[in-house]
From TrEMBL:
Belongs to the chromate ion transporter (CHR) (TC 2.A.51) family. This is Chromate transporter. Signal peptide: none annotated. It comes from Evansella caseinilytica. InterPro entries: Chr_Tranpt_l_chain, Chromate_transpt.
């Protein structure tokens, strides 16, 4: 019995170490924003390592797209939890997030005011995102839109996403797609979904959801009652992480309204950090680390980063145990058929805007994107080589 326990412990330790290493490498190489991150995750976790199948990944993405907060970070946390439990989720988050957090803190402390927005190598990294997202869209579309109904849902999602660009668009599209999927596929005999082990109890999940809503209500009251600066900062960033749909690009202007008018940051310092955040890999929510560091060094960065990501943790941990059971329900499966098709449409729309429109500005840009796509798809080179190739290619284009 002791030997079995020891073997189990070694297996779990190995899994934890693997989760940390893989997520850390993704944290170093995942440029391009939240949609591009889903492409990197898809390539690493589904195609390469097969930690979960295509359907399970799509269902997890659908759940995280529906929740407020940083969708790509929540997907990473969810995969870590399913792979190695709660500790796996924490390590997956740390590995993916720490590289950009440290880079932005150092930027805040050492090179404030440095303009990176026009750097040629950064433009090359944007072109990498085109290749990565195009690869992910092709892979997911083939699996998730196999019939005319689902292709129609995906097409409508593309049109609505591009023509109606508001903070609630994504939520409305997913809700409508769920209804359409339910109506179209509720009586269809659906294939059994693969079982996903979620080593979190429902009691713990309910506790996480209770804490999420409790903090959302209590923090503003504590801010008023105490007038403590650290509580005010925690409240602002926690609220930003709790109420934002649509990922990191949406939270940036929201944070500006929270920190610039009250004098926590100057407009110039905010814009400098905005440019730096676009230049680093990993989740855009790590912009909070920069703001916190400008305000109060490493301590301020820790408070701001913890506050903005805590809602994402509580929400994904609070929903995963129920989601794993619900996705096996035939009625829910029908709705998920529609939702997954809509997610493909949202990815296609994001591939065009903002990724394509901000990256492919000349024939040379398209040529580099084609080469990077070939490196990723045809030659199956590691993502870090594709990222390095994009940076070098962008620099060469800048010299032309």
């Amino acid at each position: 019995m002791g030997k079995k326990a020891e073997a189990s412990s070694r297996k779990r330790t190995g899994s934890l170490w693997e989760v940390l290493l893989v997520s850390f490498r993704l944290g170093l190489t995942s440029f391009g924003g939240p949609i591009a991150h889903l492409g990197y995750f898809h390539n690493e976790y589904v195609h390469k390592r097969k930690w979960l199948d295509e359907r399970s990944y799509a269902d997890l993405v659908a759940l995280c797209q529906f929740l407020p907060g940083p969708a790509s970070s929540q997907v990473g946390i969810g995969i870590g939890v399913m792979r190695a439990g709660l500790a796996g989720g924490i390590l997956a988050f740390l590995g993916f997030t720490l590289p950009s957090v440290i880079a932005l803190i150092l930027f805040a402390l050492l090179v404030q005011g440095f303009d990176v927005s026009s750097a040629a190598w950064l433009h090359g990294l944007k072109i990498v995102a085109v290749a990565v997202v195009a690869h992910a869209v092709l892979g997911m579309a083939g699996k998730l839109t196999p019939d005319a109904n689902r292709r129609t849902i995906a097409l409508l999602a593309v049109v609505v996403t591009l023509m109606w660009q508001t903070v609630i668009t994504q939520v409305v599209i997913i809700a409508a797609a769920a209804l359409a999927g339910y109506m179209l596929y509720r009586e269809q005999k659906n294939p059994a979904v693969s079982h996903i082990a979620v080593p979190i109890s429902k009691r713990f999940a309910i506790g996480c959801l209770t804490l999420f809503f409790g903090l959302l209500i209590l923090l503003p009251l504590l801010r008023e009652w105490t007038s403590v600066h650290a509580i005010a900062v925690f409240d602002s960033f926690y609220r930003a992480g709790s109420l934002v749909f649509g990922g990191g690009h949406v939270v940036l202007p929201l944070l500006e309204r929270e920190v610039v008018p009250v004098g926590w940051l100057t407009e110039e310092a905010f814009l400098a950090g905005y440019g730096a955040t676009q230049a680093v890999p990993g989740p855009l929510f790590t912009f909070a680390a920069y703001i916190g560091a400008v305000m109060n060094g490493w301590g301020g960065a820790f408070i701001a980063t913890t506050a903005i990501f805590l809602p994402a943790f509580l929400l994904i941990l609070g929903t995963l145990p129920f989601w794993s059971q619900l996705r096996s329900n035939p009625t829910i499966q029908g709705a998920l058929f529609g939702v997954n098709a809509a997610v493909v449409g949202i990815l296609v729309a994001a591939l065009y805007h903002p990724i394509w429109t901000s990256s492919i500005l000349a024939p040379a840009d398209f040529a580099l994107a084609a080469v990077l796509f070939g490196m990723l798809v045809f030659w199956k080179l590691p993502p870090w080589i594709v990222v390095l190739g994009g940076a070098i290619g962008g620099t060469l284009i800048g010299l032309m």
